[in-house]
Amino acid sequence: MSNYILTSVRNHIGFITLDRPKALNSLSLDMIRSITAILLQWQNDESVHAVFIHSSSEKAFCAGGDIRFFYDVGNATPKGDSALLEDFFSEEYALNHLIHFYPKPYIALLNGVVMGGGMGIAQAGVACRLRIVTERTKMAMPEVNIGLFPDVGGGYFLARTPGEIGTYLGMTGEIINAADALYADLADVFIPTSELPALMDLLAQTNASDIRVAIREFAAPYAAQASVEHSGLAGNRANIDHHFSGKHAVKILDSLASDESAFAAQTQSIMQKRSPLLMAVTLEQLRRSAGMSVANCLRMERSMVRHCFKHGEVLEGVRALVVDKDNAPQWSPASMDQVSDELVQGFFKEVWPPYAHPLRDLD
């Protein structure tokens, strides 16, 4: 087991604690392997009735993958061809798939920063999941800020948010709060941090046949604290749906430029800092993902990430953010009008024949 993953079983609940606070619980390959191993072990353990995943720190649930690791191994020769990099994404996406179809209740306490890879281990699953947010929740899929795209199944869960919210979140990388997450169907219940000790007491004592029902009942009195009235996404829903519809990124930018509203001006300012190429790639990804299964989304993203590192945009984005810290990435191409459809479509070319795809066994 990774030193950064703590596990225990109490009251028939398997607890997974992310414990890498100095790195905001950024996922390493060892951490991914440890989470996968314990979930596989508990999957067939009749004494474990549910899984509860959380953080040892109030600052972050999980800030994503370890992007400095991406930079270091991604610069191996030939570029983006490191075996460790290949293993990281193949095993991370396989973990996302495992969680999505996990046969037992899977509860995630999303307190603090929840981004990128953290969203992958929070959003996966439908029938058995429960996602708890707090007033500290800061949620995002910010990959376009580092020249990447919303992976870890981001194409699947963003494409299924109401209206064009997922398109907006994927192309801007904007951070949202608890009320936004609930409105966007990226969370299920709100519990204030002051009540988290009582929540943990409940988990230790309850004999409920379904722990999710008990948690929902516990959270019900606090719902008004994160109601739709507190959601900026809800307040801007009409603008989001209007500007972020369609299949062409340049038309989205043109639409925003023709709007004199504060929302449009702020959104343009944000998008000017993002990778033009990866914004266009993200839009294409989300449009394709809307009609795809979880497994096919993850397989597509696995090919996309190989193309992304080969191109080098993500390496430049990470360099600017965490290596040189100049916050001045030299995107290639530098503007959206230089992004050709041929360049975008190149990110979706098959890397492996179906029988050799590293995620070929997902179903």
Automatic annotation (TrEMBL):
Matches recorded under InterPro entries: ClpP/crotonase-like_dom_sf, ECH_dom, HIBYL-CoA-H
Gene3D superfamilies recorded: 2-enoyl-CoA Hydratase, Chain A, domain 1
Keywords of this entry: Hydrolase, Isomerase
Protein name: Enoyl-CoA hydratase/isomerase family protein
GO MF assignments: 3-hydroxyisobutyryl-CoA hydrolase activity; isomerase activity
One Pfam family recorded for the sequence: ECH_2
Domain Enoyl-CoA hydratase/isomerase: 13-348
GO biological process: L-valine catabolic process
Keyword Isomerase: yes
CDD domains per record: crotonase-like
Record SUPFAM superfamilies: ClpP/crotonase (SSF52096)
Signal peptide: none
